[in-house]
Design brief:
By secondary structure, the protein is α+β, with helices and mostly antiparallel strands. It is 54% helix and 18% strand. The relative contact order is 0.10.
Length: 635
């Protein structure tokens, strides 16, 4: 019983191939029967070859003709094949029936090959769809219960065992493990995660069991957004493909009119016999059809989209892959884009009788009671030191925080606040603090009792790959790179200097960023904007190509942008530009090859150097060639 089922499944999955094989087998038997003079058997086998090999093309061609009132290349192939068979019957030159059957066979083989080629791209893209399991193991009253993913609710606690896929985005409540995020973010190395860290659906858990709290609906998870955007990218045709589609409709009509003229005028103008005239007209219908031209663009762009998705670069549609290769200027947001958006301890200076660890521990004792980002950064820096939390802690917003630690008053805050409690601020520290503040860093003074212990410089961390990315973009020939930020001039110029950006626009509101993008577009035409926050959304929408940070980016930024960097890895911008340029090069090569084949085949037809089967081989060969050429972008 299994064998017929498997055969039926194989037939369904490879219908085009089975049809081509049957067509070829019947064609061979029909040719053999003609060779032996068995006309009756030949006239039974050859029509069957026509029907089996040409059914799908005829159905699609007639559907397009009646529903859309348009001619397409499938119908032209069938007309040419039937015309050759009719001419053979009329003239009793039965080899022409074989020619028509060969046309259909080669067209069927070509269709099967193109189907396999496109299926490879499809599989590469659709592999995203299999990254999430169907069920999740939920903790319910202390017991584990498996439920479908779509039934998960915010607040549910789920268990993920070693080696399992994370079913949905969430926050780790307990456990420690390494997660392979390559399929989602493009990061090649596993990432260590523990309590409080966010995990993403579709990532592979390593050696540790995790208990995770669902913090957003399953359909809002990162992988589900990726899947929706990739599906959208497959259905939206880029401008170049829309132009080719419009061109094809008009071109098919021109071919039909030219074919009719070629089938009627040569006997009167050049004295051709009617058999040669009709045969050349039918061959013209085949070789002049723009199949290769139609296949020159979309396989290439879909392959590029699949390649980008594997590397953690999500193109929302093929148009953006085209545009990113033409970018001449790029604008970067600062906070959360060039920097991580998370402040950290940059440097600690202590006065002579104290160590830097003394300063850090004292500050952490009071800041452990604070929810302020600066306080959290200090506590994080002191996590490996031994200190005791202060009591009677009191925070004064915008000034500082005080408390009692080891029976002494501890004061942490800005200079004006700390001066109220100490005798004096050391002059050498004041000069250092002034230089730090000019670089855009935030400085916290630390005092115990009436003595200053030292100062702590806090800064937003510049992304490690930011400087290398800017250098790479300049080498790629991007003419202008600017930084846009709502931060002050000192901080902005400090970050810009660190990453190698010369042109800075600071203290900008969202509408100001929009105006800068518009001015850049007037000068450079194609401009990219890279951002992560809600305040970047207008500029991302205005830019020719909007690029959002996938992990740190807000939902508004992700929805507005055209390209998403799944792992927040800035170096992928250069990869995206290279991919865009390479796709444009391959598309241009494909168009040249397609048009070159059409011109050569038409000339060969008029000079009488090719017959119908050779014309079909040249026509279909060029179509398969440009399709396979487009698949080069999968590498």
């Amino acid at each position: 019983m299994l064998y017929p089922q498997r055969l039926g499944q194989f037939t369904r999955e490879h219908a085009d191939t089975v049809a081509a094989l049957l067509c070829g087998f019947l064609l061979f038997l029909g040719w053999f029967a003609l060779h032996l003079g068995w006309l009756g058997l030949a006239f039974l086998l050859l029509p069957a070859a026509y029907i089996i090999g040409g059914y799908e093309s005829a159905r699609e061609g007639l559907t397009t003709l009646f529903k859309e009132k348009e001619l397409d290349v499938d119908l032209l192939m069938i007309v040419a094949a039937i015309g050759a068979a009719s001419l053979g019957l009329w003239r009793r030159e039965y080899h022409l029936i074989i020619d028509g059957a060969i046309l259909i066979l080669i067209f069927a083989i070509s269709g099967a090959l193109e189907g396999y080629a496109m299926a490879r791209t499809e599989r590469s893209i659709r592999s995203l769809m299999s990254l999430t399991p169907d069920t999740a193991r939920v903790l319910h009253q202390g017991r584990e219960e498996e439920i479908p993913i779509n039934q998960l609710k915010v607040g549910d606690e789920i268990v993920v065992k070693p080696g399992e896929l994370i079913p949905t985005d969430g926050i780790i409540l307990s456990g420690y493990s390494t997660l392979n995020q390559a399929a989602i973010t493009g990061e090649s190395l596993p990432v260590e995660k523990t309590v409080g860290a966010e995990v993403f659906a579709g990532t592979l858990n390593g050696y540790g069991a995790l208990q995770i709290k669902v913090h957003k609906p399953a359909q809002s998870s990162l992988i589900q957004r990726v899947i929706r955007l990739v599906e959208q990218a497959q259905t939206e045709a880029p401008p170049s493909q829309e132009f080719i589609d419009r061109f094809e409709k008009g071109y098919a009509k021109v071919i039909v009119v030219a074919g009719i003229l070629l089938a009627t005028l040569p006997p009167f103008l050049w004295g051709w016999d009617w058999e040669t005239t009709i045969y050349r007209a039918l061959t013209f219908l085949v070789v002049a059809s723009p199949c290769a031209l139609m296949a020159a663009i979309m396989p290439t762009l879909l392959s590029g989209i699949a390649n980008g998705a594997r590397q953690g670069i999500l193109f929302k549609n093929g148009a953006q892959l085209e545009k990113i290769g033409k970018v001449r200027a790029i604008a970067f947001d600062k906070t959360g884009t060039l920097t991580t958006g998370q402040v950290q301890v940059f440097q600690i200076i202590s006065v002579s009788e104290y160590t830097t660890d003394d300063v850090l521990k004292t500050a952490a004792s009071v800041e452990s009671s604070s929810e302020h980002p600066i306080g959290k950064a200090i506590v994080q820096a002191a996590r490996d030191l031994n200190w005791i939390s202060a009591i009677e802690v009191q925070a004064l917003p915008g000034q500082g925080i005080i408390g009692i630690a080891q029976e002494q008053q501890v004061i942490v805050g800005n200079a004006i606040f700390v001066q109220q409690y100490v005798t004096n601020l050391p002059e050498e520290l004041q000069e250092l603090v002034q230089s730090w503040e000019q670089e855009g860093k935030t400085v916290v003074w630390v005092a115990r009792g009436a003595e200053v212990m030292g100062v702590i410089a806090i800064a937003d961390e510049v992304r490690s790959q930011a400087a290398a990315t800017i250098t790479r973009l300049k080498k790629l020939g991007v003419e202008q790179i600017v930084m846009l930020t709502g931060d002050n001039q000192e901080t902005a110029h400090s970050v810009a200097k660190a990453v190698g950006i010369d042109r800075v626009y600071a203290q900008l509101l969202p509408e100001d960023k929009l105006d800068v993008i518009r001015r850049l577009q007037q000068q450079y035409q194609t401009v990219a904007m890279v951002g992560d926050g809600i305040n970047d959304a207008p500029a991302l929408a205005q830019a020719s190509v909007g690029i959002a940070m996938g992990v740190s980016g807000s939902d508004v930024a992700l929805e507005t942008a055209d390209i998403v960097l799944m792992a927040d890895r800035l170096e992928k911008i250069a990869v995206a530009i290279h991919l865009g340029r390479r796709s444009q090069l391959i598309v241009k090569q494909n168009i040249v090859v397609a048009l070159g084949f059409i011109i050569l085949l038409i000339l060969g037809n008029f000079l009488g150097n090719i017959n119908l089967p050779i014309g079909v081989i040249g026509h279909e060969g060029s179509t398969v060639l440009v399709t396979l050429s487009g698949l080069r972008l999968l590498k």
